[in-house]
Amino acid sequence: MIRGSCLCGGVRFEVDEVVGPFELCHCSRCRKASGSAFMAAVAVRRSGFRLTSGSELIRRFELPLREQPPAYSRVFCERCGCVVPEPNPSEEVFEIAAGLLDDDPARKPERHIMVEHRAPWYVIADELPQLDLAALLRLRGGS
């Protein structure tokens, strides 16, 4: 079991395992949501995810559709403003911000994605693969 929480500790959750991928997204929306050069996100299974406290603190901010579905939303703790996992995910596998994890996910980042939107002040200095949107869509089978 891997525990996670928001900044104030009001929202807490558990996941059975991180199933991957572990990606570093450089899109402008993820950069703004994280306040950093990229959002580090891991994939987990809905069946292995449990919100253990703080459901009453969770709020959602919806952004309109940009180019094609899906639209972008940010789920956050109303007390501390920290991004938190979707409390009732509709997908079988969904992403959560890796920085929320209090325990070791037993995975390391696998790739940078959306690198065509990289912040101009940030230099990717590791050896991880760098995928633009077209390469990411090919990797994910066009979905």
Question: How would you characterize the overall build of this protein?
Answer:
The protein has 143 residues and is mostly beta strands. The protein has one domain: Metal Binding Protein, Guanine Nucleotide Exchange Factor, Chain A, CATH 2.170.150.70. The protein contains 2 helices and 10 strands. The protein has a 5-stranded mixed β-sheet with strand order 8-4-3-9-10. A hairpin with an 8-residue loop joins strand 6 and strand 7. The mean pLDDT is 92.
Q: Would you list the SSEs in sequence order as H and E?
A: EEEHEEEEEEEH
Mean pLDDT: 92
Uncertain ranges = none
Strand content: 25-35%
Q: Distance N terminus to C terminus? A: 30 Å
How many β strands by DSSP?
10
How many domains? The number is 1
CATH architectural label: Beta Complex
Main sheet overview: 5 strands, mixed
CATH class label: Mainly Beta
Strand order of the largest sheet: 8-4-3-9-10
C-alpha-based Rg, rounded = 15 Å
Tertiary shape: globular
In the CATH hierarchy, the third-tier topology is known as Metal Binding Protein, Guanine Nucleotide Exchange Factor, Chain A
- What percent of the residues sit in helical stretches (DSSP H or I)? under 10%
Structural class category: mainly beta
Number of contiguous helices: 2
